[in-house]
Amino acid sequence: MSMPPAGPTPPGYDPTGAAPPPSMPDPAASGAPSDPVAAWQPDPPAADPTPADPVPGGWTSGGSPPGTAPEAAAPGANPYASRARWADGRVTEGGTPPPAWRRPERIRRRRWPVLVGVAATCVLFLLAGVVVVGLLWTRAATPDATGGDVDHGPLRQSNYHDWHFTLDDVKLDATKTGGRDLHSCTPVEHDRALTAQGCRSGIELDYRTAGDRIRLEQFVLVFDTAAHARRTGRELTGDQLQLRRSKLHPHAEGTMVRQSTGQYLVITVGTAANGADDDRRDTFVHYANADMAAAMIWRD
Questions:
Q1: What is the pLDDT of residue 30?
Q2: What DSSP string runs through 96-113?
Q3: Beta bridge partners of 205
Q4: Contacts of 270 (CB under 8 A, 6+ apart)
Q5: Ramachandran bin of 230, using left for φ above 0, alpha for ψ from -120 to 50, beta for the remaining angles
Q6: CA nearest 291: which of 189, 208, 211, 218?
Q7: pLDDT per residue over 94-145, tens digit each?
Q8: What distance in Å separates the CA atoms of residue 144 and residue 27, rounded to the nearest whole number?
Q9: Among 79, 98, 102, 80, which Cα is nearest to 89's?
Q10: Quick one: how far is CA 126 from the chain centroid?
Q11: Residue 132 pLDDT
C-alpha cells in the first residue's frame, strides 16, 4: 500500500494510483494551448466545368449517338470541347448552333441561243416544204419535157404539145403532128379486145422526128381499175390494136412498148423509114413511153 506523499495533497492526486481524467483547458485562461489540427479527409470530386448539353434522342453532347461509332477527332480539334449533333446530321463544337442552312445558288444559263437554234431549224424546214410544193405545183401546171397535163382535168390531147426530153446525156425532141380524144376504146381496138378488159376512154398523140424518118403513135388509155390496166398491159399484142397507118410509115416494121401507171395504160408504137434508123427508133419509143407513164403519176 502506497503512502500519500508528505505535505499538501497535489491537485488531482489519486491515492489509488489511477491516471487522472484529462481536463479540458479553459480557453479563457491565459496561456491555453491552440486548437488541435483536424484530421485530413479527401476532397469531393470536382464537377465538370462544362456540363453536357442534353440533346433530343436520349444522348448528350460530347458523345456519339447510340448505335454509332465515336467519330475520330479532326487534326487540331479540342477533344475536351463539347460537341453537339443536330437533326440534319451536322456536328458542331462547343454547343453552338450550326450556321443557318442556305439553298445553293443555281447558275442561270441563257436560253435564248437554244430558242434561236430551234426557231432557225423550223424556218429551214418550212422553206424546204415551200420549195417542194412549188416544184410539184410547177410540174403539174406547166407543160414540160414530160408532157405534163395542164390542169389535171379530163384527159385531153390538146394539153400535150411538142415533146422535149433530157436525161443525163440523153436529149430527144419530137414534133407533134396530130392527136384525138377517145371517148371510148373502140377506135383503137379490134374485136373489143380492150373494152372487154375495162378500157373506158383515152387519147392518141402523133409525133415525127429525125427529119420524118421516125414516126411515133402514142396512146394513153383509161381503165376502170388499176388491176385491169396492169393485166391488159401484160397480155396486149399488136393484133389487138387498130393503128392509123397514115400516121406511121406504111409497110414498115414497127416496135411497141407499153407500161401501166395506176388506171392508165401508156402504149407507144414507132416506125423507121429504113433499117438504118431502127436503133434510134427504139430509143425514141422507149423514152417516150417511160416519160408519159411517169407524167400519169402526177394526175392522181
A1: 52
A2: PPPPPP-PPPP-PPP-HH
A3: 179, 218
A4: 214, 215, 216, 217, 254, 255, 281, 282, 284, 285, 288
A5: alpha
A6: 218
A7: 556 666 666 766 766 666 677 778 888 888 888 887 777 766 665 544 444 3
A8: 150
A9: 98
A10: 20
A11: 75
From residue 45, alpha-carbon distances to 54, 103, 141, 213 in Å are 22, 48, 113, 136
Query: What is the reported pLDDT for 288?
Result: 96
Q: How many helices and strands in the chain, by DSSP H and E?
A: 3, 10
Q: Which region among 38-52, 102-116, 193-207, 285-299 has the lowest average model confidence (pLDDT)?
A: 38-52
Helix runs in the chain, H state only? 112-141, 226-235, 278-297
Query: Among residues 265, 297, 271, which one has the least CA distance to residue 284?
Result: 271
Residue 256 contacts residue 248 (beta carbons within 8 Å): no
CB atoms within 10 A of CB 31: 6
- With vertex at residue 240, the alpha carbon angle to CA 228 and CA 263, rounded to the nearest 5 degrees, is 25
Hey, how many other C-beta atoms are within 10 angstroms of the C-beta on 84? 20
